[in-house]
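Supplementary Note 2. Why include the ligand at all?

Several targets in our set were suspected to adopt different conformations when bound, so apo predictions alone were not considered sufficient. For every target with a known small-molecule partner we therefore ran a joint prediction. The input for 5,6-dihydroxy-NADP is given below.
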Amino acid sequence: MFNFDFYNPTRIVFGKETVAKIDSLIPENARVLVLYGGTSAERTGTLAEVRQALGQRTVYEFGGIEPNPTFETLSEAVALVRAKNIDFLLAVGGGSVIDGTKFVASAAHFEGEDTWQILEAWGSNITKAVPFGVVLTLPATGSEMNSAAVITRSATKTKALLSNPLVFPQFSVLDPTKTFTLPARQLANGVVDAFVHTVEQYLTYPVDARVQDRYAEGLLQTLIEIGPKVVGEPTDYDSRANLMWTATQALNGLIGAGVPQDWASHFIGHELTAIHEIDHGRTLAIVLPSIMDLRRNNKRAKLLQYAHRVWNITEGDDDSRIDQAIQKTREFFEELGVKTRLSDYGMTEKDIEPIIEQLIKHGMTKLGEHQDITPEISRQILKASL
Ligand code: NZQ
Ligand code: ZN
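The joint prediction is reproduced in token form.
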């Protein structure tokens, strides 16, 4: 096992009808900015619950944070925070709103001239952030209990990452009933995103990290068990509760502590979203099966462990068991209604080169747990995903 330093200060308040608890989690005299996305938070009544819970506090609101939140929109929120002396932020939404709030929290105190520099430095230049909490409405990204955010600059179609311990949420309220209003597409995306987060930290090479391995396998098996129910049964509380807690733990640092990590599916997927606006979860379902296939030699030991322990595959020689595991993974995504081929999204071979160009432009030329996925290998991965 590698050395590690695990830190996670986020308080989790979990369960039915827990939104009202934000009253006791936010300072009484706070000047609060509530940030949300499009229309869902208002439509579902969550914003009304939040307003009521905030009571007599001074409250401002900022709506319109889009899926794959943009630097351009968020910069308006930064200006509002500065103008109104806001000292607490509350994100009400999914990964996009939470990520956007992390950027706003750090940009409001940024002393440089151009807040995009935060993304250029991957968040390492953040020195202070406005404290914030979360009311989660979409289980998927794990952003509610981690210190990372992905922000898009629309002008250049750049999806960039920031990460800094100063942007851990102070608390996150996880009420599984908030997922009842989600469309099947977003639920399926959430299952796939949590699944691939786990895989990115598990399917690399063995370092005898037994707890992390078995924890990851438990998360994967849970997602396989509940996935179809989550997508097919609109108000099944138990499967939603299990999804919410699984997705949070898939990316709160615990399973990634002390183990090698991959993230190639994510970095290639980010370019697919930036150029073609394919939902984040869907990009992962497209790229992951090809990565498993083409990287089978580097990942052989863990692929065999994955086949055996996650899918109970015991018949056939090594390569056949790996083939079966890849097939099972693809079928699982498809069963959730998530298509796994670039061609399913209208893309053809001519669309591949612009993605490779963007990967190079963004410095994504040494991906994977061995930093050996070059642009040429990314090209092969995308061709295999057609
Ligand atoms: O905008 P509104 O109207 O609110 O609708 C949203 C949005 O259209 C809707 N929605 C959310 N909660 C709802 C709901 N609709 C009905 N009922 C509800 N309860 O869902 C749509 C998608 O929301 P979004 O927040 O974009 O989805 P998700 O949570 O999948 O977040 C995706 C973003 O997170 C980033 C992705 O890159 C992408 O930008 N990621 C962040 C990570 C992190 N911070 O650690 C890691 C991930 O790998 C990922 O990259
Ligand atoms: Zn993801």
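The mean pLDDT is 98. The CA atoms of residues 219 and 246 lie 6 Å apart. Comparable summaries for the other entries are listed in the accompanying table.
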